[in-house]
Amino acid sequence: MLKFDFHPAGRHFLQIPGPSPVPDRILRAMSYPTIDHRGPEFGALGLKVLDGIKKIFKTSQPVVIYPASGTGAWEAALCNTLSPGDTVLMYETGHFATLWKKMAENLGLKPEFLGLPGIEGWRRGVQADMIEKRLRDDTQHAIKAVCVVHNETSTGVTSDIAAVRRAIDAAKHSALLMVDTISGLASADYRHDEWGVDVTVSGSQKGLMLPPGISFNAVSEKAREASKRATLPRAFWEWSDIIEMNKDGYWPYTPNTNLLYGLSEALDMILGEGLDNVFARHQRLAAACRAAVAAWGLEIQCADAAVYSPVLTGVMTPEGVDADAVRKLIYEHFDMSLGTGLGKLKGRMFRIGHLGDCNDLTLMAALTGCEMGLKLSGIELKGSGVAAAMEYLTSHVAKPALKAAA
Ligand SMILES: *Cc1c(COP(=O)(O)O)cnc(C)c1O
């Protein structure tokens, strides 16, 4: 790293919940020379990634790929489907839901923010019954869209999207369903078509194990119909031009060629492992991480076991202990980055990412760094989280990923 005039021995541990570590295979794939984005080779690459990414979203409908961060894809979802002054029902699960709502305001929409009071909403998943009730009261169908975050990265809570779909259907409401799974995709089970999602927003730098820089809108037929009537100004984000040119594997502008090499490699890796195996791996590592937190005697930010995130775990520090001071100490002593507390949780918790290119030993090393850092911070721990996580992993053995030669 440029900022060091020395080499810190060993690897940096990037244990934030995105960007997640980029595997060497992907880094190498991205180092190929940039090619002509109008040439034949590019068209083949474009068709491959456009088709492959559909399998990750579990959709047969178009997935638009933007050279932008996840925030850009949030904007694309809203401006392609809505008109100035439209009411949208958003749900406060945490910091990212709050940012999406602010964006809706900035775009001239009228977001209504549902949620549990105070910090409660930041400890639980989306309450689908609250959405159903609000939609039933909206007899004129003034609400044009329901927007929820699937995996709330600021808290470590993964909401039940199928339940939100059922709530909209039960209320017989016409609103579009839009879901942010920027940090859930390719780590937590996600089903765009089956769950009847109209626009799914995602990004590259979390479960897909890529650097930041590309993002996605998976788009239903109903969303594309809505986009024909939507009058929010848009140009760069316009779906129809992109979907049209994507038919041959091209884009209306210069796409992010080298990141698409990376995406192609990531698709091979994820689909090669098998999505179900990827999800099971994440669930198992998350459970081991929670076993560690419980053994330390610390509290997990998510207060509902039914919606624990397989992607990250939020760890609350004891009253009076600044979680950012613990993070700083861990960074300085052990060269490991942990996620900071965001928004309402600033200083109250840190986040351990266990997503993407993470295995048993990666997690064990990360937990060891946490445990040493907590001790050095003078925090009284109930017991060894490292021992508890090892116990979990050895009593829940995964199918071996490798086979040695006989
Ligand atoms: C990371 C993240 C975002 C923001 O994505 P950027 O790529 O930083 O723009 C939005 N929502 C969620 C849930 C995220 O995890």
TrEMBL record:
Modified residues (N6-(pyridoxal phosphate)lysine): 206
Membrane-spanning residues: none
Gene Ontology molecular functions: alanine-glyoxylate transaminase activity; L-serine-pyruvate transaminase activity
Residue ranges of every copy of the Aminotransferase class V domain listed in the record: 51-296
Binding-site residues, substrate: 351
InterPro entries for this protein: Aminotrans_V_dom (IPR000192), PyrdxlP-dep_Trfase (IPR015424), PyrdxlP-dep_Trfase_major (IPR015421), PyrdxlP-dep_Trfase_small (IPR015422), SP_NH2Trfase/AEP_transaminase (IPR024169)
Name the UniProt record assigns to this protein: Aminotransferase, class V
Cofactor(s), names only, from the UniProt record: pyridoxal 5'-phosphate
Keywords: Aminotransferase, Pyridoxal phosphate, Transferase
GO biological process, one term: glycine biosynthetic process, by transamination of glyoxylate
Family from the record: Belongs to the class-V pyridoxal-phosphate-dependent aminotransferase family.
Secretion signal span: none
